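Pipeline run #58 for the internal structure catalog. This entry was flagged by the ingest filter as a single-chain record with no existing model, so it goes straight to prediction. Upstream metadata was stripped on purpose; only the residue string is passed forward. Reviewer on rotation: M.T. Logging verbosity set to normal.
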Amino acid sequence: QVQLVESGGGSVRAGDSLTLACEASTRTFDLYTVAWFRQAPERGREFVAAIAWGTSSTTYADSMKGRFTISRDNAKSTVYLQMNSLKPEDTAVYYCATGMMTSWPRATSEDQYNSWGQGTQVTVSS
């Protein structure tokens, strides 16, 4: 399995920005779809965004469209999540996940990913 390490979380105020990073321990990173999920207290894990292997196509949850941007740097085996206009409801632990050559139409589904990071906390105060 690929080892994933997230970084960049923190405590910010509403309207601020944060950029999360997810670094993978693989030299074939370009073959992996990478997604971000998040889990707020007492809530289930929800899909945030994903970026495809090969085409680098992206997809977002509706509530993140226009505010969050996912990107990748295959040379650094790293995926980024730029989060702008943060809201208190964005407070959660953010996880990155990866799966090799996953089915893009199912990119929002947790079962497409077999490697997960340990998570990074994002706290947004009003």
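catalog note: The two ends are 39 Å apart (CA to CA).
catalog note: Residues 1 and 115 are 6 Å apart (CA to CA).
status: ready for reviewer M.T.
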